[in-house]
Amino acid sequence: MYIGKGSCRFPFLIILLLLVLLFAGCKKKDRSLKLNEPRNIKGVVSYKRSFGDLNDVQLKVARVLGIAPLASRDEAERLGGKLVHIADNDYYSVDSLTHSIPYLVPRASALLDTIGVTFLDSLAAKGLNPNKILVTSVLRTENDVKRLRRRNVNASKNSCHFYGTTFDVSWKRFVKVEDADGRPLQDVSADTLKLVLAEVLRDVRQANKCYIKYELKQGCFHITVR
Fold it and tell me: What does pTM read for this prediction?
């Protein structure tokens, strides 16, 4: 049986193609430190003036848009579609919650997603390495507030956190996003991240999507969806 020259050449071409793909996949990854290239970072003129929505203002809308206050944590798990369970994802991280549980009404959960995504996009646009926001407080039950008041007598009995409409985002702590290929990334200072977060929150507040109170002692932005 005669085998033409073209037939003999075909397996050779296949092997050559496989070798090219193999070497392309083994291309040396960039391990140099990825530096920040900060630009157009302005923050806000005043945190207190920009985010001064007091508890009475937030409480009014929380009672309209939220759930009825819950006595215990078990009740939250039985509410089904009225609450969304939130957890660490690509847009934000959730702190180890000691006096609240990770549930929000759908409207507030969507707002949190928006803030997280916009913050990451803003960092990229401003030449900064990625960091996620950190959620430090979410839905509180009546039992949670009782326990909290043992440690902090100033904790409000009329907390917006009762209604699943409200969450706190830290301006002191953020979660660094590591490079998928293992390239080291230069850190971004918490002060710089706070400036960018303030710009994001100012914009969503001005779009009438939420009320925000700047909490100095607690180190967070107290946010209620509208």
Answer: 0.85
More confident of the two residues 45 and 1: 45
* In contact, 66 and 211? CB cutoff 8 Å: no
Q: How far lies 134's CA from each of 33, 40, 131, 172, in Å?
A: 25, 23, 9, 9
pLDDT in tens, 106-130: 999 999 999 999 999 999 999 999 9
Give the pLDDT confidence score for residue 5 in this predicted structure.
Answer: 53
Residue 112 has what DSSP assignment? H
Confidence of residue 146 (pLDDT cuts 50, 70, 90): confident
What's the one-letter identity of residue 181?
D
Q: Report phi then psi at 176, rounded to 5.
A: -65, 135
Q: Are strands 131-137 and 92-94 parallel, antiparallel or unpaired?
A: parallel
Q: What is the per-residue pLDDT across 14-44, written as a single tens digit (0 to 9) for each?
A: 777 776 566 555 557 888 999 999 999 999 9
195: left (phi over 0), alpha (psi -120 to 50) or beta: alpha
Burial call 98-117: b when 16+ CB within 10 Å, e when fewer: ebbbbbbbebbbebbbbbbe
The angle at the Cα of 146, spanning 140 to 150, to the nearest 5 degrees, equals 125
19-33 CB burial, b ≥16 within 10 A, e <16: eeeeeeeeeeeeeee
DSSP H helices, 126-210, are 142-151, 190-206
DSSP-derived 3-state class of residue 171: coil
